[in-house]
Amino acid sequence: MIITTTNSIEGRTIVSYEDVVFGEVISGINFMKDIGAGMRNFFGGRSQGYEEEIVMAREQALTEMESRALDLGADAVIGVKMDYETLGADNGMIMVTCSGTAVKLN
């Protein structure tokens, strides 16, 4: 399936717009990743634990959105947008959402 941030697909014609589809993932950051991030914050550098968690959440959200598009019989999802937020009393959770328009192509 084609997933793109653009509103068209080069060389293909959109024959129908099926629906807006979403993918949502809320992922908790565990205690050890928090400790590692705190150390990185103090000493400088990248937080590999948080980065890995964001990558996994993003991939899961895209997979969920694709699955919902497939359920509609779509060939592609266009106009995809992603959003990242922190949640929880101590900002200990990451929410990744994506949305786009499921379309059928000729």
TrEMBL record:
<comment type="similarity">
    <text>Belongs to the UPF0145 family.</text>
</comment>
<dbReference type="InterPro" id="IPR035439">
    <property type="entry name" value="UPF0145_dom_sf"/>
</dbReference>
<protein>
    <recommendedName>
        <fullName>UPF0145 protein G7058_07825</fullName>
    </recommendedName>
</protein>
<dbReference type="Pfam" id="PF01906">
    <property type="entry name" value="YbjQ_1"/>
</dbReference>
<dbReference type="InterPro" id="IPR002765">
    <property type="entry name" value="UPF0145_YbjQ-like"/>
</dbReference>
